[in-house]
Amino acid sequence: AAAAASSSIKQVKLERESELRIEVANDTPLRLRLLNGTAEIFGTELPPEMWLNFPPRLKFAVFTWYGATIEMDGATETDYTADETPMVSYVNVHAVLDGRRKLAKASSSSAADSTQQGPRVIVVGPTDSGKSTLCRMLLSWAAKGAWKPTFVDLDIGQGSITSPGCIAATPIELPIDPVEGISLDMPLVYFYGHTTPSQNVDLYKALVKELAQILEKQFTGNAESRASGMVINTMGWIEGVGYELLLHAIDTFNANVILVLGQEKLFSMLRDVLRSKPNVDVVKLQKSGGVVSRNAKFRQKSRSYKIREYFYGIANDLSPHSNIANFSDLLIYRVGGGPQAPRSALPIGADPVANPLRVTPVNIDRDLLHVVLAVSYAQEPDQIVSSNVAGFIYITDIDLQRRKVTYLSPTAGDLPSKYLVMGTLTWLET
Ligand code: ATP
């Protein structure tokens, strides 16, 4: 009886079309299971009766279409039930997208029009409007229906595919695991190296273009992916250059469904500029009241966790290797911000601005300490901007006397390529 009294187990009964919103405690995990009925977490159904472990700080909702009872064990920062959600409108969007996938599939097998594409959805809106969460639901619902949509994440600040500072794409074949997140077989990753696009707007655009071109090529040879389409997540920066970058992404990926979350002004601006394109639908969607706002400090922290997760795994289940290399073994480059051309070398009247896509070698010194570097697939330095990356290393020590660098790498042995790319991305291992 004493054990039962001190136990933190509680049951929550959810009515149809309502959700249990949870913020897991800061230091302790939470266990949760579905006792009866049916429920999903951001589009992925919960298995009956099986305990799931949620790590500290995770924020999520358990939603039910027809009613469910949930059992929870552990501390939470908050947990409450909400019966007002935008889920019906979200699933209606999914139904429309599904119809378009079916059309695309039917027309590609009839060969009447082999260029038929599935929907290319782009989700836009201010920070903390629930963009990543909506992407996740649309992807999981599609995967549940046996489609294989491609998830494209253009958010270099809070991306969900790999380390911050990157844009990336990966096919989604199964509903996304509520705890583990997106499973990564072979994501296609481009390294930008900064967590804000204003550092080098031209580079950001160039990488978006590279990623889009590669996906376009993959789609040509893969009717299943083509019919399934894409779901593209974007950054919360929607003013000025941020807005320009949204238009650039819409154009570059040939997006034909624009989902605007939580901002009337952005919706009407996009509807007006895209009015001339009859094949593009701009749809306004309500933001969920469950979306948790995160301040700059929280965002900084979650970037840091994301890098940690890359090396150590989400549950500390990976063991990265510490390696030592000679200065001469590492060929490090940076993009943009290189030395300016002398005025005498330029046409009359031209200003000596640095080429934003110029690749320059970096000398190894103490500044490299705590830097996260990408391992590029480039064969030559001048291919660095157009090449995707294999992964990342983290510099843990620089010995200037012995000219040795110590770095953390997810695997032992040689790096898959000798060209490393540096930006302003750093990490303090804690
Ligand atoms: P960003 O500004 O980084 O682009 P975003 O618009 O993509 O943010 P999300 O990451 O989708 O926003 O949501 C912010 C946080 O709110 C996330 O931690 C997410 O898990 C949480 N969240 C979203 N919807 C709900 C909900 N209905 N109930 C509880 N938590 C939620």
UniProtKB/TrEMBL annotation:
Domain called Clp1 N-terminal: residue spans: 13-103
Q: Can you give the residue ranges of the Clp1 P-loop domain?
A: 125-313
Q: Which domain of life is it from?
A: Eukaryota
Q: What is its main location?
A: nucleus
Name a Pfam family for this protein: CLP1_P
Residues of the Clp1 C-terminal domain = 318-429
Family annotation (SUPFAM superfamilies)? P-loop containing nucleoside triphosphate hydrolases (SSF52540)
Report residues binding ATP: E19, K59, D128, S129, G130, K131, S132, T133
Q: What keywords is this UniProt entry annotated with? A: ATP-binding, mRNA processing, Nucleotide-binding, Nucleus
| Matching InterPro entries | Clp1, Clp1/Grc3, Clp1_C, Clp1_C_sf, Clp1_N, Clp1_N_sf, CLP1_P, P-loop_NTPase
A GO CC term attached to the entry: mRNA cleavage factor complex
Output one GO MF annotation: ATP binding
User: Which biological processes are named by the entry's GO terms?
Assistant: mRNA 3'-end processing; tRNA splicing, via endonucleolytic cleavage and ligation
The cellular location(s) given in this protein's UniProt record come to: Nucleus
Q: Which family does it belong to?
A: Belongs to the Clp1 family. Clp1 subfamily.
HAMAP family xrefs: Clp1
Q: What does this protein do?
A: Required for endonucleolytic cleavage during polyadenylation-dependent pre-mRNA 3'-end formation.
User: What protein name is recorded for this chain?
Assistant: Protein CLP1 homolog
Organism whose genome encodes this protein: Turnera subulata
| Gene it is expressed from | CLPS3
